[in-house]
Amino acid sequence: MNSTKIIRKLFDSRLKEIDLYATQAGEIQSRVLTRLIKEAQNTEWGKKYDYKSITSYDEFRRRLPVQTYEEVKPYVERLRAGEKNLIWPSEIRWFAKSSGTTNDKSKFLPVSKEALKDIHYKGGADAVALYLRMNPESRFFSGKGVILGGSHSPNHNSRHSLVGDLSAILIQNVSPLVNLIRVPKKEIALMSEWESKIEAIANSTIQANVTSLSGVPSWFLVLIKRILEKTGKQHLEEVWPNLEVFFHGGVSFTPYRDQYRQVIQSPNMHYVETYNASEGYFGTQNDPADPSMLLMIDYGIFYEFIPLEEVGKENPKVLCLEEVELHKNYALLITTSCGLWRYMIGDTVKFTNNKPYKFVITGRTKHFINAFGEELIIDNAEKGLAKACSVTGAQVSEYTAAPVFMDANAKCRHQWVIEFAQTPDSIEHFASVLDSTLKELNSDYEAKRWKDIALQPLEVIPARKGLFHDWLKEKGKLGGQHKVPRLSNNRQYIDEMLSLNNA
Questions:
Q1: 12-21 burial by CB neighbour count: b if 16+ within 10 A, else e?
Q2: I need a labelling partner for 72 at 20 to 30 A (CA). Which of 19, 49, 252, 262 fits?
Q3: What's the pLDDT tens digit per position in 76-95?
Q4: H/E segment holding residue 205
Q5: Helix axes 194-205, 217-231, angle to 10 degrees
Q6: What's the Cα-to-Cα distance from 157 to each of 80, 82, 102, rounded to whole Å?
Q7: Rounded to an integer, what distance in angstroms lies between the CA atom of residue 430 and that of residue 452?
Q8: Which pLDDT tens digit goes with each residue over 333-377?
Q9: 3-state helix, strand, coil in the chain (%, to 5)
Q10: Which domains are seen in the chain, by residue range?
Q11: Which residues contact 149 (CB under 8 A, 6 or more apart)?
Q12: 101: pLDDT confidence band, cut at 50, 70 and 90?
């Protein structure tokens, strides 16, 4: 008997609610905003902006400022010191240590009990519901799920709170029922030392009947390779024959796709992209043939969008969901049941559909190269690398890129440090294909590359094996949700990596 077929019926009513996204998006989002404003009206923040008198979205948009972490930080510090009812009415004891960048300055984002329930866990449950709809013959619940997360620790500033990776907060607070269908044990899953943790997870899960994986692709690949080393197997389905799905997020899957195809060759394997950040759970892939994700609009999140050309302006134009245009880049603003109000999280998105609203992540507002007016974004980089890999037979493990402002010959260019899982026959050919593809994708880059006048051909520097791992380790950033910065507008990160590469 397939227990999954019985359990999946429990998701039917929820799937009907999600289906309303296609026809009632505006109404759904309006209800979310009204609820959030009402719940927070007696907080310090709610009184400051007189929430009781806000009766429309236009009034909300006119009255409240757009915020970055710098504006939120004073409230966060007071919350971490034990103050209450500042930006959200319920007590906030958990703070997600944001690791979206490797910047030395960590961000501590409030996580309320309401947000755990109506954002993060709801997102996880919906991801499973949508997956089961896509795969009616699934046996998802016949085995266990491996969740690869980070760690948490007491807040050193106060006895009132705890800080950690969002993944660790979710594991710590998850329902006992979910613990019945996940591995490893909580004490292993929350270990702080990354290399010992990988070893412990491998040892404790090899004998389990694993049907699903959830985590960041780059770090999961490390675990998979260690499991294959320990078992002497070539492919993961030889260890876990019933494995069927990987829910992945945190970094783009594109650079890792070919490597996953090598270590998991089962035709029954599925991959589902999710968008679960420290700030909230925003999207889930609901069609295996479409890389776009469904925007989850009935959680404790109200969405707004800033056209990319408006980012950085003192009073940027801000749009609600119904005002966005398809195929345009927007910076994402969120208002949430964590007490984040019109908060710019730093990600950029592009909508591919509006019935229902579906989107792709295109990059970061701070992770791009625009040193010479070329406006190169991560979406360009990922597509360019995919083409170069396809043409040359290469596979990319990790990469970063930054400008060379002027070398000894007064030449400007982009410099790419790439760690290859499979090295191309010719680095020069790989670089040439990458360069020409970027020209095709980005007219600004093409203009700056015209006749090599403003910008010389890009340079690819092969990284030694383990370079990015060593750099992250040096930063104390191994594991969890930590990521390598893909594109930088300055040379801080790349110079550190080149120094390590040559050591």
A1: eeeeeebeeb
A2: 252
A3: 999 998 899 999 999 999 99
A4: helix 194-205
A5: 60
A6: 7, 10, 22
A7: 18
A8: 999 999 999 999 989 999 999 999 999 998 877 777 877 778 788
A9: 40, 20, 35
A10: 24-114+300-364 (no CATH), 119-277 (3.40.50), 378-501 (3.30.300)
A11: 165, 167, 168, 170, 171, 189, 190, 215, 480
A12: very low
Q: How far is Cα 321 from Cα 355, in angstroms, rounded to an integer?
A: 12
Measure the CA dihedral 145/146/148/149, to 10°: 50
447 or 206, higher pLDDT: 206
Q: Specify the amino acid at residue 344.
A: M
pLDDT, mean over the chain: 90
Q: Which residues does 401 contact at the CB level (< 8 Å), separation at least 6?
A: 369, 376, 381, 414, 415, 416, 417, 458, 486, 487, 488, 494
Half-sphere exposure of 303 (CA within 13 A, CB side): 27
The pLDDT assigned to 173 comes to 85
CA distances from 4 to 1, 14, 179, 352, 433 (A): 9, 16, 17, 32, 46
Whole-angstrom distance, CA of residue 278 vs CA of residue 360: 18
Query: Do the Cβ atoms of 457 and 435 come closer than 8 Å?
Result: yes
- CA 297 to CA 274: how far, in whole Å? 14
Cβ atoms of residues 407 and 387 within 8 Å: no
DSSP symbols for 218-280 = HHHHHHHHHHHHHHT-SSGGGT-TT--EEEE-SS-SGGGHHHHHHH---TT-EEEEEEEETTE
Instruction: Write down the pTM of the prediction.
Output: 0.81
Write out the two tokens for 386.
Answer: 């995919």
Return the sign of the alpha-carbon dihedral for residues 380, 319, 117, 289: negative
Q: Are strands 459-462 and 182-183 parallel, antiparallel or unpaired?
A: unpaired
pLDDT-based confidence at residue 481 (cuts at 50, 70, 90): low
Token pair belonging to 477: 């950033």
DSSP character for 145? Answer: E
SS3 category, 49: coil
